[in-house]
Amino acid sequence: MADAVLAASRTFARVLIAVATLCIGLVLIEAVLWMRLPQRRLPFSGIRDGTQYTWGQPVRTNALGFRERDFAMPKPSGVYRVMVVGDSLTFGVGLAPHERYTERAEALLRQRFLQHDIEVLNFGVSGASFVDYRDTLQRLAPMVEPDLIVIGYCLNDPQPHWQGFSVERQRLETRLAPLLSALAAYGRLAPHTARRANEALWHVLEATGRVPRWPDGLDRVYDPRSPEWNEFTGALRAVAQLAADRHLPAPIFLVLNQGSSTEQPTFYSHPDPLLQRMLGWYRQAADAARAAGFLTVDVAAEHAAQLDGHILAINVIDAHPSAEQNRIYAEKLAATVADVITASPP
From the DSSP assignment, how many helices (H) and strands (E) are in the chain? Predict the structure, then answer.
């Protein structure tokens, strides 16, 4: 009996030692990962003390819930109002409000048209798709009373899901639900280790062909036969019809060109393979917008002339466009809007 108790005690002690060793190892791994993470050197992004921050920039919203100042409704007499709808690129991830292309374009237009009270209002929503833009315009345009509508186009706008979505990944997420739930639970204790483990899992599944990489998944959306593409082109026509019904000029389709890397320079003069695919998507979307009745605006040439060889991302882990890219968007948008105003003075 005594021998059995002693053996059980030794087994229990070994289990405790093994568990303690594992915990210490995981703590050390978590600490090492934290020391190596680029985020450690970046401004805070997330919610702190009830305030949302985007890479150190506080996010303040208006009465309608958008990252924009409050504005008068109904629209006062003499105001020329441009309503800009888009996703996180328009929202301005990582940017102060004055760095975004909407505020920059407004400043340029006010300098040019001193006799007009021009407003360029930002209705960007992170994660929104083109169908969401249509719904936002249909819901709010009667209240906002825009004189001109602008769409800030991101390459994943035809995708109603997130950029890396695929049916294969959706199926595997269902099959791997217990493992993913365990990783999520573990992430509450060691978030960096859990995130790396989750990333490694999906990298292995991509490398083995179990799920497509995000550019391959997005290629499916740009297939003219796909339901997503047909929904996108239908939404294009709906927005153009909304503008026509309100007796507005043709809406502007502003292609928000991006870089192809967060860490390496992007060369629009000599596109790498990923950038070539991106440029093809932009051209296809712009052609569809033009066919639907939009005035299309692209800034690829300006990127090649002014930012060739620059790192275009907001930081090393976030691919959203830099302040300099927003300057280029603003200059091209302001010039286009100026032409519209000149052709049809308010």
Answer: 12, 10
Place of tokens 């959306």: 221
Length of the chain: 346
Residue 228: CB atoms within 10 Å: 20
State the amino acid at position 262 in one-letter form: T
Domain regions of the chain by residue span: 2-36, 69-162+217-343, 167-208
- pLDDT tens string 193-249: 778 788 888 899 999 999 999 999 999 999 999 999 999 999 999 999 999 999 999
Cα 53 to Cα 60: distance, rounded to the nearest angstrom: 9
- Predicted structure pTM score: 0.89
CATH number for the domain running over 69-162+217-343: 3.40.50.1110
Q: Residues 125, 132: contact at Cβ < 8 Å?
A: yes
CA–CA distance, 15 with 21 (Å, rounded to integer): 10
Give the separation between CA 247 and CA 140, rounded to whole angstroms.
16
CA–CA dist 8, 26 (Å, integer): 27
- Rounded Cα distance between 64 and 113, Å, is 28
Following DSSP, what letter does each residue of 116-167 receive, concatenated? SEEEEEEEE-TT--HHHHHHHHHHHHHHH--SEEEEEE-TTTT-SS-TT--H
DSSP run (H or E) holding 105: helix 101-112
Give the side-chain half-sphere CA count within 13 A for 73. Answer: 14
Residue 124's DSSP bridge partners are 86
Cα–Cα distances (Å) from 18 to 9, 10, 15, 188, 189, in that order, read 14, 12, 5, 22, 19
Q: What is the pLDDT of residues 58-100, one digit of tens each?
A: 999 999 999 999 999 999 999 999 999 999 999 999 999 999 9
